[in-house]
Structures are given as C-alpha cells and as structure tokens.
C-alpha cells in the first residue's frame, strides 16, 4: 500500500478562519468535481424534551427558502449545474453535504451560506415537512427492525440523548411550530466550531479562499450550552423487552450493551473483534452458527457503533418467533466463548487484512475522502491517522480483543429487545 497516497499532513490542508470555521481541503487532480461536506455544532442534544426532533426538523427546512432565494430558486440553481446539497441532524451536529463541478463550488457555497445563515422557514413548507415526518414515524412504528433498535437504544442509553430518536415522536413533531424552528436557528446556528471539508478538482488554497468568501463574514455568537448529560452506565442486569406489532409474522431481535467511545483505546481491538464475531453476517461467528449451521435466522450479524461520549455493541437477527429462544441461546453461547478465550491467529489475521484492504477502497471517491477528513476532526484523531492506520491494525493482539470484549460484552448483563408478533410467553425463562 502506498501510504503517501492516503490522506495525511503532507496532502491535507487544515486552516481555521477568524470566525472559528475549520476548513479541511485535499486536491484530487483526476476529478472534475468537488464534494463539500461538514457540520455545525448543534443537534438533537439541544432539543427540548417536549419537542424532540426539533434539530432534525430545522435542518430539513433550511432549503425551503431564504431571504435571497425561494425554494424553487435554490433547486433550479442546483439542477441547472447538475449539483446537489442537503442537510441533516444527528445528536451532536447538523451536517451538510453537496457536490458540484469544481467551477461551480462558489455557487454551492453561496447556497450553503444562505441556507445556514438566512432561512425563512415558510409556514407552507413547515406543514408539508410535518406531514412527511408524520407519515415516516407511522411507518417506523410498523417496522420491526427499527422499533427493536429504537427500544434497545432507549434502554442502553437511558436518560441520555443517544437513547432518544433524532427524528422525535409523533406527539413531539406535532408540537413543533414554525416559530420553534426560527428560535432554534437563532439560538444555535453560528460558525464557531463549524467544520467544512472540500475534496476534488480544486487546489486547497482555492478551497480555503472560496469558503472564506462565502462564510468568512459570518459572526460567531454565544450559544446556550446543551443540557448536562447523565453519565452512561452499563446494564447492571439482564433486561428483556418485547414490542408487539400486530400483523407481523417475523420478529427482529437486538441484543447487546454499551460499546467503547470512538476515542477509546478499546475501539480498534473491539472493531477487529466485531469483524470476527459477526460484522459480515454469515461470514462471522454468530451468523455462521445461527444462520448457516442452525438455520434459525434469515439474517444475523453484529455491529459496533462508536460516538463521542459512548457507543453500543449489538447483535441483530431476523427470526421466526418459534426459533427465538434457540437463537438467543446460541448467541449467548458464542458471546460466552468470545469473552473467555482469545480469537485465533487465523481469525485475527483475516480481520486485519480485511481492515487494511478496505481502507484505500473507502478513500477512492471524493465523498469517501471528505467523510474521512470530517472523522479526523470530529474525533480528534490527528491528520496522520490514516497513514498510521495499517501499522496500528497489525499491532492489535488477540489479548487486546479479549480485553475489549470482556470490558463491554458481559453475557450476564445484556439488553435483549424483540419486536414483532408475540413470542412464546416463557421464551425468556432463565435468561431475564
């Protein structure tokens, strides 16, 4: 692998403007286009509890009209240039992403600036969005996988913003009014802490100059701090929860607990271990046992999610309700093995090769590089992170994976959530 081709301090420009905006830029000389990605520092953690989904609602309404451009003006500009722009909110941030030909970057940045700084939130479009969100939330309530995951997060991250849906609930979306969007925008939208990544057929200096021209005069402001978050504690005992959804024949299962935060030294060993345990479904231990050998699930895999303050380590499966207890017993057996003995050298070697091989593939496109740069900034990983990554992966030992597993995956203290038809009443006997 040519490490010098990966993003690093020698080929990524990082500049902080006077108003607190950090610009990350990398030239991809073979590309005629540019990708623009970034975020500002506000998200669903800033939502009032009675108006959950407000950050998401606000982000979705930014392109519905500004003090210079109406809704149709914005989209005509984008369509005529073959460009794109969009916004969305997560727990900590409101993100944006767009693409255009390199020559159209100033136009894209101008639209970005308008949408971030001067949205009008027209009442007509607010009501249209509310109707869309309402329809989506009704569909969510009928989706077994989504409801299992939502309930799992609520139990694992009880009392923390990570445990609340970013798109809110039906009652909180109905409570949000147009003035709430405008107030949220005035309170929280400002440039300090904003990050902008520009990647593609443009020099880093041109990228920095273009961002400066569009956003450099945006004045920072003092914003209210988000409410203090409660310390996230691992589950103290097994918990089982079922969400009954009528009319369903298949059941979705999510089980697991807390995982490491992204900056934790346990994160990389846990990631490699998760790969072995079941990230790729039937190719992992759990998928191999539950799906391939026993034939109990049409899908079975694991996932490791790591954020700023914490994370989750989960096993997911789609099942016939009649197979639930047998599948849970097999999963628990695999987890007990995973926390009691090191992975084999062969398993670790395969996982390491997979991680190292995937890295350049994830950085082939402008968007892949832009996302990578944002992660460097969001988690304070350092500009040389990707160039150091292969050596860091090779350095992980079976003992480090075992330590991470033992730290987070206690088979005696898991959250187990099912959603779908009613399972047998005694399925959890002796487990929860």
Describe this protein's structure.
The protein has 432 residues and is of the alpha+beta class. The protein folds into 2 domains: 208 residues, Cytochrome Bc1 Complex, Chain A, domain 1 (2-Layer Sandwich), CATH 3.30.830; 182 residues, Cytochrome Bc1 Complex, Chain A, domain 1 (2-Layer Sandwich), CATH 3.30.830. The protein has 15 helices and 11 strands. A hairpin with a 4-residue loop joins strand 4 and strand 5. The protein starts with 12 loop residues before the first strand and ends in a 12-residue tail after the last strand. The model has no long low-confidence stretch (mean pLDDT 95).
SSE arrangement:
Blueprint: E1 13-16, E2 22-27, E3 33-40, H1 54-61, H2 71-80, E4 84-89, E5 94-101, H3 105-117, H4 123-141, H5 144-156, H6 170-175, H7 178-188, E6 195-200, H8 204-215, E7 239-244, E8 251-259, H9 267-279, H10 285-293, E9 297-306, E10 311-319, H11 324-338, H12 345-362, H13 366-378, H14 385-394, H15 398-408, E11 415-420
Parallel strand pairs: 2-6, 7-11
Antiparallel strand pairs: 1-2, 3-5, 3-6, 4-5, 8-10, 8-11, 9-10
Helix pairs in contact: 1-7, 3-8, 9-12, 9-15, 10-11, 12-14
How would you summarize this macromolecular structure in one to three sentences?
This protein has 432 residues and is α+β, with helices and mostly antiparallel strands.
Pick out the low-confidence regions: none
CATH homologous superfamily title of the largest domain: Metalloenzyme, LuxS/M16 peptidase-like
CATH topology of the largest domain: Cytochrome Bc1 Complex, Chain A, domain 1
Which of globular, elongated, flat, extended, rod-shaped describes the shape?
A: globular
């Amino acid at each position: 692998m040519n490490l010098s081709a990966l993003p690093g301090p020698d080929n990524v420009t990082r500049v902080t403007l006077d108003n607190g905006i950090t610009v990350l830029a990398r030239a991809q000389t073979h590309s005629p286009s540019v990708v623009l990605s970034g975020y500002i520092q506000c998200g669903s953690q800033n939502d009032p509890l009675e108006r959950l989904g407000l950050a998401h609602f606000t982000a979705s309404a930014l392109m519905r009209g500004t003090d210079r451009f109406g809704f149709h003006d914005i989209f005509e500009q984008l369509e005529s240039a073959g460009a794109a722009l969009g916004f969305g909110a997560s727990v900590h941030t409101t993100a944006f992403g767009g693409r255009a030909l390199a020559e159209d970057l100033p136009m894209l940045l101008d639209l970005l600036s308008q949408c971030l700084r001067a949205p009008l939130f027209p009442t007509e479009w607010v009501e249209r969005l509310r109707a869309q969100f309402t329809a989506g939330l009704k569909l969510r309530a009928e989706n077994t996988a989504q409801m299992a995951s939502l309930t799992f997060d609520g139990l694992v991250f009880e009392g923390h913003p990570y445990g609340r849906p970013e798109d809110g609930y039906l009652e909180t979306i109905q409570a949000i009014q147009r003035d709430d969007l405008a107030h949220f925008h005035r309170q929280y939208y400002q440039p300090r802490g904003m990050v902008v990544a520009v990647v593609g057929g443009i020099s880093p200096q041109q990228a920095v100059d273009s961002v400066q021209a569009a956003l450099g005069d945006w004045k920072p402001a003092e914003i209210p701090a988000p409410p203090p978050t409660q310390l996230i504690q691992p589950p103290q005992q097994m918990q089982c929860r079922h969400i009954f959804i009528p009319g369903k024949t298949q059941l979705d299962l999510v089980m697991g607990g807390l995982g490491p935060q992204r900056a934790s030294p346990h994160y990389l060993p846990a990631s490699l271990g998760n790969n072995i345990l079941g990230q790729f479904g039937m190719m992992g231990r759990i998928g191999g046992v539950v799906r391939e050998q026993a034939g109990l699930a049409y899908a079975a895999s694991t996932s490791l999610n790591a954020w700023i303050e914490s994370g989750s380590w989960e096993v997911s499966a789609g099942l016939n309700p009649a197979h639930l207890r047998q599948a849970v017993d097999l999963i628990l057996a695999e987890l007990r093995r995973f926390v009691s003995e090191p992975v084999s050298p062969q398993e670790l070697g395969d996982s390491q090769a997979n991680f190292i091989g995937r890295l350049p593939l994830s950085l082939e496109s402008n968007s892949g590089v832009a996302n990578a740069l944002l992660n460097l900034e969001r988690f304070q990983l350092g500009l040389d992170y990707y160039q150091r990554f292969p050596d860091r992966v090779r350095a992980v030992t079976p003992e480090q994976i075992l330590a991470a597993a033992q730290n987070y995956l206690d088979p005696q203290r898991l959250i187990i959530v099912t959603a779908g038809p009613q399972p047998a009443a005694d399925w959890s006997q002796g487990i929860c």
